[in-house]
Structures are given as structure tokens and as C-alpha cells.
Amino acid sequence: MGGTVYLDRKDAELRLDGGALAVYVNGERDGMVPLAPVDRVVVIGNQLVETSVLHRLAEQGVAVLFLSGRTQAFRGRLVGRLHNHARLRVAQYAEHRGPLALRLATEWITAKLAGQVAVLREAADARPDQRALLLRAAESIDETRAKAVEAGNVERLRGLEGGAAAVYFGALPAVFPPSLGFGGRERRPPRDPVNALLSLTYTLAHWEWVRECEAIGLDPLIGFYHELDYGRESLACDLMEPFRPMVDRWVWDLFRERRFERRDFASDQDRPGCSLKKGARSRFYAAYEDWIAPHRSPMRETVETLARHILNHGENALSQGNAGAAGQP
Questions:
Q1: What is the pLDDT of residues 181-232, one digit of tens each?
Q2: Which helix (H) or strand (E) holds 78?
Q3: Domains, in order of start, for the chain
Q4: Residues in contact with 309: Cβ distance below 8 Å, sequence separation at least 6, in sequence order
Q5: Do residues 210 and 300 make contact, with C-beta atoms less than 8 angstroms apart?
Q6: Cα(23)–Cα(314) distance, rounded to whole angstroms?
Q7: d(Cα 97, Cα 102) in Å, to the nearest integer?
Q8: How far is the C-alpha of 221 from the C-alpha of 105, rounded, in Å?
């Protein structure tokens, strides 16, 4: 299992030193990481990376993610050669709006709704003072989940998911201290500490899914549930849906265990939004790695299973089509 290198030092420089990545600050070496186990590098803010480093990372299939310094917003990504599994991608394109698409979308969304119900019910046990509110929301989403199983088309499924999201994020603020100012989901920009950590974790997890799709040969831009949109990794968005409640629960744990508090965040009047202070970011990235590490193997298995479904479904459809054609006069 590989690891992640986070480069988040002001005016740092990343160089190659034999078989290792070396970080230099003010011209002096500040640390080294063996390159062999690394499979992703996250560069935050204003850093200098030698082109020889980028060449080596690309050759070894190490993904590089670039995030902004203040808000850790996505800015760009470097990938090496894409997987050569052309037959898989062709099958994916053929299936992205067929019967398989509805089946996959239904599985993902019903799993997401079940995850939301589990989070709310756990929260109800942890917060007896908010138990009635949280259990009502959980019951409502559970009813929506039953309807989603029989949705019949992706458009209705999206409507049901949207309604459940409104109920879920209407109730979720009850589990967080009022001092955090969390009143529901706000994305661009996040305006409170809870939304700030949700957005950052969603971003990092999204790129985990992108990387797994690319590693097996799937096109992350072509999804089955999310609409095609210029530049959006719709398949990664699809795979994120059942994963989101896991992120939500983890972020709740971070605040519940007081690993992060209001003082770890800053807001800038000139640039609206809330983000982690520099000193808290290293703690967050270490916590994220501890949390995501055991999820990476199941994520890879999920994508491998998806690829098999796509190939098998496409081959079955082709066989049936050929059989039908052979029977024609």
C-alpha cells in the first residue's frame, strides 16, 4: 500500500535525491521521503517543484494534486500515462446511459441514503437532547430510500436524492456545537469550520476515486448517475455518493473528539470563506491519512468490480445482439 506526501511549507522546494524526494527550505535540506512507496503527492500553495521530480513521478504513475494555499481548493493535477484498456473505456461509453446505468445509480444512491440514515441514528444516540429531530430525519430519508429502489429512471432518482439531502443537512447541524456556526451545507466558499472540513475532505476523497478509475482504465469523466459536464469527473462523483456519509461521520468525529475547534480556522473579510489555519493543516492531513488508509483497498476493489460489471454487461449485450441478428432472414 502506497502513501501520500503533502508539501505545505512556505517557499519549499521539492527535488530528487537518488531514490528519494527531498524537501529544501532556504536552500537547506529539511526532510526526505523514499520514493518507492509514494503513490500520490499533494502540493499546497506556493512551492517549487523541479521538472526532474515531475518527470520521475509521471514515469512511476504517481499522481500530483495541486491545491491553493489558503482554502486548499483544487487547482490542477498531474498524471502519467493513462491505462491502455481501450476495450473497457469503449464498453463504459456504450453503457453510460443504458439499463446498467440505472442499476448502478440506484445502488449508489440507496447506499448513500442508508449511510445518511446510519449517521443520523448514531447521532441520535449520542445526542439525546436532539434525538427526536434526528430520528424524524432518519425515518424520512429511510422512506425516500425505499422509493429510490423503485425510482425507474435516473431523473426521478436525482429528485429523491435532492429531497433527502435537504432533510439530512437540515438535521445534521444539531449534532455540532452552535459555536461552529454550521447551519447546513455551503460549498463555495465554505463559511464555517464544519463546511470547511467537509469540502476539503470531499475534495481529497474525490481525487482518490479519480485515481482508482484511471489506474484500472475507466474514464473518470463519463459517469452513470451524474450528467456529463465539461471538465467534471462524473464517474468519480458517482462513486463518491455512497462514500459521503463516511466523510460526514469522520468530520463529526473530528469535532466531537475536539481534535479541531473554532480557533483552528480563519476567515478573511477580503476573501469570504472559512479555512484551516496553517498550523492546523498538518494535523488535518495526518488525520486524513490515518482515516483514508484502510479505505483505499475497498475503494480499489469497488472500482475493479465496477469494471468487471461494465465489461460483462457489454459482452452479454453484444452476444444477445449477435444471436438476434443471426436469427434474422
A1: 999 998 878 999 999 999 999 999 999 999 899 889 999 999 999 998 887 8
A2: strand 74-78
A3: 3-78 (3.100.10.20), 86-319 (1.20.120.920)
A4: 100, 104
A5: no
A6: 47
A7: 8
A8: 16
